[in-house]
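Worked example

This section walks through a single chain of length 128. The input is the sequence exactly as stored; nothing has been trimmed or padded.
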Amino acid sequence: MKIKEIVPELVVKSVQRSIEFYKSELGFTVDEIAPNENSPKWARLSNNNFNIMLQEYDEAKAEIPLLGNKITSTVLIVIRIELKNDVKELYENIKSKLEIAIEMRETDYGTIEFGLKDPDGYILLISG
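Given that input, the structure is written out below as tokens.
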């Protein structure tokens, strides 16, 4: 078996709100949207070779009843950025407007990173 790709699909309260967050704060673009742009229930976004899918909670629960009755963020999403200076610049640009979950730090394996929360509480670890 050869895996083609792994794409995280986040179950969110509002696909539209999440699209706006990922576009404005992290530079994603919308590749696909369903059923339409005026009332999105699902979307696929990308930034370079990184893809993410968003699905509205009620839609996901209808398809997968085991999801339960509330959204819980149990996933840590790591977004790797090529240059350390870009990580620092992003941190400086968003630290006063977004909830920082992990302050900027240097790791023992040579990267710098910080974590922020998206609108549904998912922690995005930005690393470079």
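What to look for: The domain at 73-128 is CATH 3.10.180.10 (2,3-Dihydroxybiphenyl 1,2-Dioxygenase; domain 1).
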